[in-house]
Hints:
Layout: H1 2-14, H2 31-42, H3 50-58, E1 79-82, E2 85-87, H4 90-99, E3 107-111, H5 117-125, E4 128-133, H6 136-148, E5 155-159, E6 172-177, H7 186-190, E7 192-204, E8 207-216, E9 219-228
Parallel strand pairs: 3-4, 3-6, 4-5, 6-7
Antiparallel strand pairs: 1-2, 7-8, 8-9
Helix pairs in contact: 2-3, 3-5
The chain binds S-adenosyl-L-homocysteine.
Amino acid sequence: MRGVLAAALLLALSLPGCGVSPREPGSDDFAAARARMVREQLEARGIRDRRVLEAMGRVPRHELVPESLRARAYDDGPLPIGEGQTISQPLVVATMSQALALQGDERVLEVGTGSGYQAAVLAELAAEVYTIELEPALAARAARDLERLGYGAKLHTRLGDGYAGWPEAAPFDAIVVTAAPDHVPQPLVEQLVAGGRLVIPVGGRGGQQLLLLTRTESGVVREELLPVMFVPLRRDPDE
Ligand code: SAH
């Protein structure tokens, strides 16, 4: 066994550029910044779900922000991604992901693909991810980037108004909404399985509450998680 391992290592080292795959966690130029982000922004502030911490330690956030902002990809805040939209602060992505309590075998819907970062984190945490974006330029770019990063197999992207969910792919074990409506869209509640979780910021431009809704056999249980500030959920007038 040890001989085989040693031989494989020798082979990898002797082929130029083959020693480390660029997709391996921790192997890119931003690995140190990413590890620091996980430690100082997430673990230190109470994110406890190991799988969420590991997922965010793997996803190359710098590959999903505009090239000119790469150096700031692991900063403790949101960043502009074009079309007046933003990629969320890492802590917010972690909080929402943790609230979904994913084990690995779930089907998950995200409304508001944006940069594709939250979708990539979800793809690390669940079996199948569906993500929908209203803005054509962002939807196209995220689909291309997520494919390039190797998430294509379990991640499905779509251009459209996520208020209506994704009825053809429903029901979902978990749904996360990353733009804020002023009320909870009923179609999303209806597209949850019994026991399913919906994490959604609800409120106006002045600020919103991040809600965790759990669908049960007898109704919906509602929990307020924390005050947040998301871009508004817009509606497609044709849908
Ligand atoms: N989850 C994203 C951040 C999203 S910002 C990320 O990880 O980068 C919110 C996104 O929701 C924006 O891209 C915005 O265009 C999109 N959006 C707004 N209203 C929407 C709607 N009704 N349906 C789908 N996407 C919507």
